[in-house]
Amino acid sequence: MRRPPRLRGASSPWLAWRSLCATASAIPIPAAPPHQTDPLSAHFSNRPAARDPAVVENLTSTLRALFASSPSHPRAFTLLKSAAFDAGLAPGALVDAVLSAAAGPHSGSPVAAVHVSLLSRLLTSLSRAGRASAAADAYAHMVARGVVPDVKSRTDLLVTTARCSSARDALALFAEMRGRGDRVDAWMFDALMRACVKEGMLEDAVRLFDEMPGAEIEPDQRVYALVIAALCKLRDADRGLHLLGEMKEAGFETWDFTYRSVVDVLVKVGRMEEALRVKDEMLSAGKKMDVVLATILMHGYCLRGEVEKALDLFDETLANSILPTNVTYGTLIRGCDQAGMTQKVYVLYRQMRGQGLLPSSHEFGLVIKGLLCDKQWEDAVSLCVEMADSRLPDVFTYNGLIRWLCQQHKLREALNLFGKMKETGVKPSVVTYNSLLMGYCEKGCMDEAVKLYSEMPVEGFVPNVFTYTFLMKGYIKKKAFDKAYALLDEMKQNGVSCNEYTHNVLINGICMSDRIYEVDEMLKNFIGEGFVPTTMTYNSIINGFVKAGMMGSAFAMYQQMREKGIPANIVTYTSFIDGYCRTSCCDLALKMLNNVRRKGLQPDIAAYNALISGFCHEGNMSHALQFLVILLKDGLTPTSAVYTNFITGYKDLKMMKEASKFYESMIKEGIAADTVTYTTLIDGFSKDGNVAFALELYSEMMAKGNIPDDITFTALTHGLCRIGDIDGAKKLLDDMRRLDVCPNALIYNMLINGSLRDGKLQEAFQLHDEMLNRGIVPDDTTSDILAGQKSPEGQLC
């Protein structure tokens, strides 16, 4: 038979298909009818055309000729596949064509196995080509015609149904197969279980495994691995362990992944010893420790709080040339953070970066948090800015850092970071704005705070209760209580509910001002609006009266508190103890302390500190020391405030040697000195003439991250001016400018006086001008100093 010539440039699938038909059947291709103008490929351009009976008959006759030559003619599948994929015949038409061609004149005869195999191959081809709908149609048509495709092709159908549709649809199709009594095998269970695990249908995967014995099918290696993985994800550690043992007993090799799954679930449910035992079994079976297994075990140690063991394992993996991954470092960073090992967190981050890896935004936030805990805020800011372009710091990282800076009065740095945040495309949140508002309000910069507040709606942020509360606290600090109170009405107009904390801020604010007499009326108004006062509310009012020296009013409020059934606590009584100590009535404070004990309340560190402060203020250091012994016996740890009171007491007695001993004891006990402690020492040594040591303390406090305030600088300026070092005192102004600390009038008065004393009249007036430019109002002393210089008979203060 002569081979027909090759068609050049034939782009029509129909022409290729007709060529196959002609070659397979050796029947010449009939010429197209004279009236036909469309190409033959138009018959197969869409599904309706492919159902043309004439076209199907053409395929059927060609297949019949092939089957007549040989029932398993190799050209038959090629022709059928071309009709399906190139010509686009409908799946049902393909099945009908095969069955019609196979039946011949005896239409009722059973379908031969060879033709079932042909249809099975067709089903496999459609399934593996991802044509799930066509494969499903073909399968349905086969079943309707009494043909059951082989297991392999039905497995392919289940796989493509799960991949292109869903595992649930594949399960429904599988149920239909089993309902008809069609044979199934382990491959089908494997395919379905794999699809279920992939889609998170873990219970269905386990159910399929449990149905295998009923289908008289033994699980194979793949099925065991899948069901163990599903059980481990469901945290069913007991059954996962049991099936691992069953898998080994069946003689199957256990894969690394299966071992790791079991170790992982045991770690997560807190059974670390068993996890280590399974790890040992894995290594005994000839498997090797890898980074995934090592990371799982590190996570287990961290969950148990045994971070040191996790770090030891980390060092061991490095020694064995196992390179850690992002997940490994992330696990250790989180573990060290939980354990408070902040320095190690930073070390791990540096190792990670040295390896060319990046942490997640959350883990990077932990690194920043650790640096802040260690008071390495400059490193934290630098690191954040360094990684900003990589988008590693997210809004939570920025918010945490900005809030910390604002709390530490480093507003300039916080604002710079805010600018960097917006520059790199990280959108701020209402928390960001609230933190900056807090910073402005703490610094007393209310104009800037109000400007930022007005920007919030423009930027799409709705002020919340915290926004208003920060503004209220700012106004209260500036003694602009009417403005703070006016914000309450603005809150209500904007639909923001006032919470208990906001009410208490206003009550506490008026108590700390010189308008304490208005607090009773304010409380009545708040109660009328639905506010329910708490112990904290009354404690604020009582403390306010105590601080104002109005002990009678404090007791009256205490009586009101009791009448309303609101219980007093140790804070309430501590206020009274503090009040008696402030009015030099330490004997009454002792009686109140005994009363507290009779009520079954345990005095806290604040109560003892109030007594110690009172006795130190009176210069009765022996009594103060007795209470230090008592609080230690009660199991309490002295705070920096307690030590500072002793330092203050000895400073006032000009016993700086004893003050130094308390400072040294404080450091030895690991109690960090704060700004107040350092300021007290600097003031004491400056007045004692030891300005050099005062300057050493100043450098030390800066190195430890304690920011001096205007009182610290006042003490240092006074000391330097006393020894005639006016230039050194002026240099402190530069430090204040750098630290964003506003000088007070007293500092400028001392500098102006010192300059005049040295005969530097021009410098004195320059300082006066600088004072005015910075918005610092000169007081009477300033005028007296300058007036004394102008008058020939005037004497310098």
From TrEMBL:
The keyword Disulfide bond does not apply. The lineage of its organism: Eukaryota, Viridiplantae, Streptophyta, Embryophyta, Tracheophyta. NCBIfam families: PPR. PPR repeats lie at residues 185-219, 220-254, 255-289, 290-324, 325-359, 394-428, 429-463, 464-498, 499-533, 534-568, 569-603, 604-638, 639-673, 674-708, 709-743, 744-778. Pfam families: PPR_1, PPR_2, PPR_long. This is PROP1-like PPR domain-containing protein. It comes from the Eukaryota. Keywords: Repeat, Signal, Transit peptide. Residues 120-279 form the PROP1-like PPR domain. The keyword Signal applies. InterPro entries: PPR_rpt, PROP1-like_PPR_dom, TPR-like_helical_dom_sf. Residues 1-26 form the signal peptide. Belongs to the PPR family. P subfamily.
